[in-house]
Amino acid sequence: MYRETPHPIHLKDYRPPEFLIDRVELRFELDPECTRVEARLALRRNPAATRGDGHLRLHGEHLKLTQVAIDGHVLTPAEYRVDGEGLTLHRVPDRFTLETWVEIHPGLNTALEGLYQSGDLLCTQCEAEGFRRITYFLDRPDVMARYTTTLIADRTRFPVLLSNGNPVARAELPDGRHSVTWEDPFPKPSYLFALVAGDLSVIEDGFVTASGRNVKLQIFVEPHNLDKGAHAMRSLKKAMRWDEERFGREYDLDIYMIVAVSHFNMGAMENKGLNVFNDKFVLARPDTATDADFDGIESVIAHEYFHNWTGNRITCRDWFQLSLKEGFTVYRDQEFTSDVGSRAVKRIRDVRTLRAHQFPEDAGPLAHPVRPDSYIEINNFYTTTVYDKGAEVVRMQAALLGPETFRRATDLYFERHDGQAVTTEDFVRCMEGASGRDLTQFRRWYEQAGTPELHIRGEYDATAGAYTLSVCQQTPATPGQPIKQPFHIPLAIGLLGADGRDLPVWLAGESAPPALGTRLLELTEPEHRFTFTGLSERPVPSLLRGFSAPVRVHDDLSDADRMFLMAHDSDGFNRWDAAQTLHERLLLALTNDVAHPIPEDYIAACRRALCDMSADRALLAEVLSLPSETYLSDRMTVIDVDGLHRAHRQLTQHIGERLRDDLLAVYHANAETGDYVFSPEAIGRRALKNLALAYLMRAGDEEGLALCHAQLEAAHNMTDVMAALRLLAEQGGAEADAALDAFHRRWAGESLVLDKWFSVQASAPRPDALERVMALLKHPDYSARNPNRVRALVSTFSNVNQVRFHAADGAGYHFLVDRVLELDPVNPLLAARLLKPLVRWRRFDSERQTLMRAELERVLGRSELSSDVFEVVSKALA
Ligand code: B3K
Ligand code: ZN
Q1: pTM, to two decimals
Q2: Residue of the nearest CA to atom 8 in ligand 1?
Q3: What is the helix (H) or strand (E) element at residue 172, kind and residue range?
Q4: What is the per-residue pLDDT across 533-560, written as a single tens digit (0 to 9) for each?
Q5: Which domain holds residue 377?
Q6: Can you list the alpha helix ranges (DSSP code H) found in 165-225?
Q7: Boundary (domain end) residue, out of 447, 464, 481
């Protein structure tokens, strides 16, 4: 907690560490009340660093130091100094062994960073700077050491004792305790350290690597969850095989462990050989988890596994380089999901997320480059920009290089930097090295914040048989970056003929036409003109195929062109995107004018899509899903929350009424009776069926309501149950309450299912939503100590239920800030994240602006704030 303004840390101030640590021996006497940590560090002066003042400063927070010794000599208090940030040793030799003894209190650690208690377990979370809450250390990623860890604890309460690497010794101690020693042969930064202790059951399997090594796979869960780990294990093996085939990466230890814990700030953590997971991303049974949960598990398991190479073997030099591991690993998990499922659907979902979250971040007061220049609290920089835009930046390099060259470039990266702590610059150099391309201008994607805007105009010259596209790029200013230089943008395009087929994209001046299909153009200037020849008719351009760059496109296509693309584009992503633009334009028009006509040809295009039984069901469901109110709000200069909500309901109802018979037919055609199957095909059927049900319900259709009740009664999978429950909760009334009560009784004690019960009520846009949410805060199952529960209730309400959160009286804002102030002393990381919906306060009408700003100022008025919350609020108000 800070009374004074915390200071920012700047990338330009990076200096190599003055000391290195080669070996770390840790000994934990574990106890939730008081854990004793003994650390023995082999330190030596870093030959690559400039000599400082002779003092050695080690990070350490919330530690009670009981003794410190250098080379076996216990120091007197005059030989060191302890303050709130660490331990300073006056005058140390060039090479020495440092021993420290500290005490910590995991049971009181509500921030969930460092060593903490989750239920009956003890576990750690060290990224980014949690290790300093365990022992005194050079807690920075460019200090990589080999660790040996001995865990000692009561044998009955903590029968399982885990840490990184391989177990090398076990002992039973006379006092009812036991000990296990772990050795990790790979040097690692402290943020990858982990330990777990508790009464855990294990799901075990094995994997034989491409080179024939046997790896033991273990997923540890609390005993009552033993029947919910099979999907996670399948996902892990799939990911391990895929990484061998696609990136040539093999696993390196003899054992790979995953532990599911119920109290976790984020999704999961890639600690070397011992991943610690939010149990939401491990536990699933068809009757407890939805298709989205199953998908989430597969991709998070894969993501953490992929970190073993992109993050652990090769790590970040400093936290400004976070996207080096996160952007690249997100890219890798996206590619994995695309390869094992539908590429177009995966791309659509990722772009939905990017547009709904990253674009607004890039346009708001917290905008920052993929490689930020400064931060106050690094926990605030685990953002959609660093992760998702970072993945786009890797994807663009892959596109510019082409698949074979990109694979050579990543091979070079793994070979050149294995065992090192490096920068995004090192990554780009490997891309250049393998391809011979100059990516100087491309580097701006790492340096400049903001979403580029492309203005594209097409012109057909019938006499010359030529079509010219003029493309201008321009990037709006962001905080601290008023002027932007042009980006190097890969623009994938196709040209469609009147029959809906791809035409050759033949640039004037080229002697022969290229193969049919997509062509990658490269933009480097503020303005370009591309002329294509050999065209006997005006083509319809398919722009930014596959979303080849994270930009906003403004084009001059007509609605008729978009309907044509929606029906014919060979690029599945662009079929969806054309539909989205049509939905969006209509919704925005209805927001401004309730009487705006809903064109017949639009309804006809929706009907054609709905009834296109040849297409991938999951893709159809995406095509026919209207953009969310939150996403649409980003498209308005001044956000009209009530108008948007009304327009959304109006169009949904209209589609539901006009397509009623088709929707019923689609519902029945895609209903399934057999056992739950987790396959892209089955997921697609459920998605389309539940979309049809949603349109019918929202149109107030009687038969739809009967189907909804029947589905809730009969369903044996959570996907169908939640789809029905959500629609009933939205309608409200006695029947909805009865259904919610029954659901609660059925799932009492299943924490992850209860999260769904909370979130379905928080997201229902009923007029009494806030009252209900406030009542739920007092429910015996609510706990501010469990981040999943807080997110289920508070974040769902404030992020998803836009119309109720932004109620004109400001009660939603007041409610949220009360929660932030309550949580800040408990869990600052979570408190800062809750603030996000208030950050874009300038986008609303002046009454709401005043209310939102007053609430942000109420936060800043607090005398003691965490650096996490302080940074978000002060930047939001700046
Ligand atoms: N690397 C972790 C994130 C840790 C967040 C620390 N506050 C999860 C991931 O991206 O895989
Ligand atoms: Zn990650």
Answers
A1: 0.98
A2: 269
A3: strand 166-172
A4: 999 999 999 999 999 999 999 999 999 9
A5: 315-447
A6: none
A7: 447
